[in-house]
Amino acid sequence: MSAIAGIMNFNEEPISIDHGKAIMNSLHRFPADDVQMWRQKTIFLGCHAQWITPESVGEKLPYYDPERKLAITADAIIDNRQELFDALGVSKTLRLKMPDSKLILLAYHKWGEESPKYLIGDFAFMIWDEREQKLFGARDFSGSRTLYYFKDPHRFIFSTVIHPFFTLPYIEKKLDEQWLAEYLTISGMIDSVDAVLTPYKTIQQIPPSHSITIRQGEISFHKYCSLKPGKQIKYKSNQDYVEAFQEVFQKAVDSRLRTHRNIGAQLSGGLDSGAVVGFASNTLQRENKLLHTFSYIPPKDFEDFTPKQLIADESPNINLTVKHIGGIIPHYLDFEGKDSYSEMDDFLEAMEMPYKFVENSFWLKGMFEKAHQENIGVLLNGDRGNFTISWGSALDYYATLLKKMKWLRLTHELHNYSQKAGGARFGRLPSIAKIAFPTISKLLSTEPSFRFPMLVNPEFEEKNGVLKKLAGHGIGETGWLKASTIYEERRSLFEDMFPWSSGNTLTAKLSLRYSLWKRDPTNDLRVVRFCLALPEDQFIQAGLDRALVRRSTKKLLPDEIRLNQKTRGVQGMDWVHRMIPHWDNFSDEVQKLSIDPEMEKYLNMDVIKKASLKLKEKPDPTHATKADYRVLMRSLIVYRHIKSFH
Hints:
Helix 2 (81-88) packs across helix 4 and helix 6 (238-254) runs antiparallel to helix 19. Strand 8 (148-152) and strand 9 form a beta hairpin. By secondary structure, the protein is α/β, with parallel strands linked by helices. Helix content is 39%, strand content 16%. It is globular and about 75 Å long. It contains 26 helices and 19 strands.
């Protein structure tokens, strides 16, 4: 809803109003419904507001409460408003119009620094406590909103985005080599295992799930939220689990429908986005409201090379969902003329840092552009569904049954699975055995396992001690998690890291650019905790993988989608095809990168030169899933980012 910023001076030094104005002026690149500033002698708060929820219209931010001696600036949508109203004793006459920022302020007044753990939603906020002479703030559990800061002996400065810091004369724009070394070493979609680091030496960020306190020139952090599984939920029947899930998920979806503008949702042909759209439509149709859906489809001249179990063009399945649910205005978007290469600079400007999701960058941004044109205030999605509502890999679960020698249960499941997904009843046993006994499988295997090449120069990695640091976070020499099972990987991702931080960075910054919020009910804290507490057999059952969401969407989604276990959609398979008109420029830039002495310090040129051999051949769209083109694209993104410092 806002871009927020502020300055806290130490040692009684008065605030420079020129510095405050410089920060706020730099935010003018984003649309705003209101821009306000508030200042005391040593504290400055600013807000570049976008009014998304009905309660935010006309909201005054920053807001100072003279009775409580508290001031707040906030970028927040709070989803558990009713629970907070009850806990805080807010009168019913005030509830309807109370903005979320005042609700946060009341929570802080009651619970102090413990207040963030009572908040559910997407938020980043800072509160000036005049009585305590301290600045206190927090970022939501998964980092859905960004919050950066700078500190030196004289001052503390914070901002939703990075570029305002460099309008100030005492902040130098300098590359953080530790961040870069981690980014290049980690082969997966995580940027860094240190959630405080950014690509800029002088700028850091408040980690997800953390609060920050600044008092007498000192900073302290507190992790207020942990996602370790609690006591396992146990109900009497399968239907009880379904009804409990439906209640939790419906509440998560409904709380994300608060906007005075149109409501949209990203929709593929699968379960997660389909479930979000179905549950949202449940509510919207009762209110006589329509739901806009935005679906990516490949261009007409794309020749699908994917195997028959994969679907690059999901429009037939999307049509089934749209017609079954009803009350939907569908938008099918092929983003003609858009591609990952020609949009790289614009994407780097939006992100303010390198990124790894090269295959779908052009349509991620394109969704926001189209939603903005349709006056969307909230854009729903199901990005986190694979880890929550649709968790459940059948083969991995069957591997646990094999290891525990539960033969009858395994035989029964394999029989049902073969009927639903196809194939011989025991035909998958070799694959299941490999998952169950990976060490033996590796010893017997004659085929090398795939690993994404490390882009980091080995000397640069060693200088920064990255592999040693990553090992402490469960990441091995392949540049990715050493977890032996998907269950360990899921636990590690939820408890130890913030793997969705980079995706949320994109979401937050595109939200500001296009004045709308992308919101994910599959990532609702209540939904996450519910799903983590369920027995594993609720996710794999009677031959169904992802069984909980399949059972919970009966009648809500068409059975062709709900029960489909034979095919799955894959998005972004056309990214190489789209780049063909720019292939010469792409090749030339790779050549420049490969002989750049500055880049040789950071990048593994042997890996890049080996990958660039593919450029001597005709561009091959079928290599979209292979490593070579992705290696080169990731390298170019880093190349352009580093050149921006000159």
